[in-house]
Protein 1
Amino acid sequence: MTPLEEVQRIKAELWAEDYVPESLAGQSKSKVKATLNSLPVIVAEGDSWFDYPVGIDVLDQLRRLWGYRIHKFSEAGDTLGNMIYGTTIRRNFEREASGLYFVKQAVAKYSPKIVLFSGGGNDVAGDELMSYLNHIFSPASKSGKQWLREDVWNSALNQMGFAIEVFAKEIWGVNKSVQIAMHGYANPVPDGRAVLNFPLGYKFFGPWIRPAFARNGYTDWRKTQPWVGRLLRDYNDLLAATSKKLGSRFHYVDTRPVVGDYDWANELHPTNKGFEAVAAKIHNQVLSKF
């Protein structure tokens, strides 16, 4: 069995209806049933932190450790714009429905206590990141000292904040009592690792961060690592401010304290242990209160 096949086997086991989480191992059937029935129902929308085909992601870990009942609508690679507004079109230019459309349907159907939301990582990395950078030879960069296009970045942050507010208010339009929890992202290591890395520099599914900086003349990833940290700090600050603005029904979970430099499988995704740490933070800070 290949490593990927083993991951798929584990995921299938975790999401089986009769799965018993590790926290209840050895308990009687009646105890397991009573505990699982007492857990809050969850609806989840998000990106690859909630839908990572080659690893045990955050939602998988929540199932593995505690057995939460989760109706998930997450999709690897998704952006805030597509999740909330719907930016995908068919070949005839007809729009696909947004992720929010399906989440609202699920909230109406399942009456969850909590909606988990993972979004924004793909709005910072990859092609989007290119638009935030001054080329090192551009006069605006001042010989590389002004690497960030502050006006473009701040405008993007504002748009992200507006989108998150739309998401929350639309959910509350369906069920005003549902809680929403959204995690921030930890500081990645932009060293050029992809999901799949082969000899002679062949890479698949990534990398996302180092290429954007390299194309703009910043080839030393160690120099750009604190710059990436600056972008993630701004985004986490945005989430904290948005949480304060939206009130007690919106919970921001800061993952930076629990995911360190050695907890990354590649430039965007933590290792299984890293995802476990994020799941534990969400559980301890939010889910266990319900």
Protein 2
Amino acid sequence: MKHARFHLLTAFLMFITFERGKAQYDAQPLPSLREQAQIQQEWLRIRLEKVLPKLMRENNVEMWIVPMREYNEDPVFTSLVSPTTFSARRRSIYVFFDRGPEKGIERMALGGGAQGGLYSAFRDTTLGNAELWGKDQWKLLTSLVKSRNPRTIAVNISETHAFSDGLSAGEWGQLQEALGPEFLPRIVKAERLPLDFIAIRLPEMIPAYRQLMTIAHAIIEEAFSNAVIFPGKTTTDDVVWWMRQKTQSLGLGTWFQPSVNIQRKGVDPNSFSNPVIIRGDVLHCDFGVSAMRLNTDSQHMGYVLRDGETDVPSGLKNALLNSNRLQDILLKNMKVGVSGNQILANTVEQMKKDNIEGAVYTHPIGEHGHGAGTIIGLWDRQKGVPGRGDVPLLPNTWFSVELQATTAVAEWDGQKVQSAQEDDVIVDSEGIIHWVLPRQTGYHLVK
């Protein structure tokens, strides 16, 4: 029975299609979990062998120590371990030591296993008596550090970046004791090392991410259609929970609760609480799916045609056009090496020259929904974000281009309509920006 259900689901996924403008996409299913794990394991190998050495040397780090305990994992944990490893094992200490360009980075695991052969697993069974239980790993770490004698030792402590602040107070206290007065002066807080390692994506990840994004867009397309919305009966919460259920039925997860909201002529949008959707409503959703330790993030606009209407009123079309124009301005300013705060300032300056009212709050995405890397504004911080926005934009990173433009609509007696859009882009190795899928340039229609 289970196999029959699996084949039915696979057949169903293979024929999901949706159309936007002249483009049509086939939402092919993700491979089996076993195949996904094999793909992810190869991504891990490439990142450890090619990305990590470069970052350690750029940050002048000779040794990187990452200790953590079960269910209190460092944010960098999932970037360091195999897809079949879901948590630290009691205590896991990952140690990386740069032996030079010829020998490369030595990868050591004190607890947690070899991660499919990508680490050398260390354990000293002679230290396993009851009195020393819990201390044996630290004694082993002391031995390993002394034998390698690193000039610099990076730890994950940061007051600015959550992704670089994974060393808990308890582990930090024991680590200091293990290193002792000889090695403690060699500690450095290399904030950019974990931050950039999490942020950097591989070109090999793009096909799977595009496939995941295609499924996400297909779900939105169906949600904002007559297949789900019956004007005068369906509420916004009905659509939200349909999206959640659909996501789960397709074998995917999500990293946040979806949202669906409306704007309506003559009504304050802040007055709504789970309204019934009626004809003439402007729809908006915020939705993302998760699989293979990847996350998507999309905000799309929809419209419910009034009786007799065959298209969206021109004023509403102009609202969407303005958010598309703001996307263009932002992408022109997103240049490798430029900080998020400077990108935001340049974008806001051009936005004002073009008489666009709106806001930009764009963030990295990938292994986390609100990912590691520079942020380009927050919805309530349009003059920049000290620290988090000072990081330069890097090649081989992904971003959710998230923003909104607010436009007065003639057909709504000058009432302002907010067109909030979000779709994901890839900054490639050359710094060229590509949409993962074509952005939304027309409303989803409920007829």
Protein 3
Amino acid sequence: MHQLCVATIDSRAWELAEKYDLGIELDQFCTAMYMDMPDFPKYDADARRMLGRAKVFHGPFSELSPCAIDPRVRKLSMERYNQAYNLMRSYGLSKMVLHGGYIPLVYFPQWYVERSIEFWKEFLIDKPEDFILCLENVMESQPSFLVDIVRGVNDRRCRLCLDIGHVHAGGVSNVPIPEWIEAFAPYLAHVHLHNNDSSWDWHKSIGNGTIDIDRVLDMLDRLAPDVSYTFENIDDTEESIQYYLYRKRK
């Protein structure tokens, strides 16, 4: 069975993880400034109380860009990712999700791929062998962007995180989710599960939207049987858990 996690964007994450015996993905520091603010101890304490179940750490992404044109932005991105990495290791975790950082109409795809390969190679230089970096799709229109980055980095520590809701939301990609799964499968380490009606990235429960979730889960079972999953829902995670567990019992 896949390792199942609950994202802490749902305020009931700990309660649900305890109830259903699931892992947790820590999202407390998706916004980098929370690592610096005076109330950092509050966020840190919240994360640390979940360490008995925490399996995945979601790093920061706002205004960060691994393929930045401005070298100062690139430098800041590296500093923030390393700051998050050090915090993650203090929690005893080894699997970290970071966004690829592509912005349509700002970066040419070739620039994005080439600069990202350079960036992630540098980022991984001093990381231990047990570390797993999972690059997540957000605004990428084609699966080939991130696949080409992982191939170019050519390091078993650099893998992919497929977010099926991001593929489906707001016309980001015209490539069907099954094709993303097929392209990502050889490099896949983690999956974010949520649904939407294609109008926006609503992060609804997996049965509440127009993604054919049963087909998605069947494909993932077949092509990537060892990856971990996170139910990345804002307030209806329990619906996702029950949908998933009921499907497994059928």
